[in-house]
Amino acid sequence: MPNRMEWVLFDVAAMSLGLVVVPLYPHDRPEAMVYILKDAGVKLLLVEDERQLQSLKPHLAQLRQLKRVVVLQGHCSESCGDCVAAGDWLPQGKQTWLRVAGATDPHGLATLVYTSGTTGPPKGVMLSHRNLLSNASAALARIRAYTDDRFLSFLPLSHALERTAGCYLPMMAGCEVAFSRGIPYLSEDLAVMQPTVLISVPRIFERIHGEVQAKLQHAPEWKVRLFQHTVESGWDHFEHQQGRRGLHLKGLLWPLVKPLVAHKLLKKLGGRLRLAVSGGAALDPHISRFFLGLGLPLVQGYGLTETAPVVSVNTPGDNEPSSVGQPLPGVQVRIDAQGELCVKGASVMSGYWHNPRATRRVIDQEGWYHTGDKGELDAAGHIKVVGRLKEILVTATGRKIPPGDVEGAILADPLFAQVLVVGEGYPYLAALVVLNSEIAQGVTLDEMALVARMNDRLHRFPRYAEIMRAATVAPWTVENGLLTPTLKVKRTAVIQQYQDVIAQLYVGH
Question: Which InterPro entries did the record assign (predicted)?
Answer without folding.
Answer: AMP-bd_C_sf (IPR045851), AMP-binding_CS (IPR020845), AMP-dep_synth/lig_dom (IPR000873), ANL_N_sf (IPR042099)
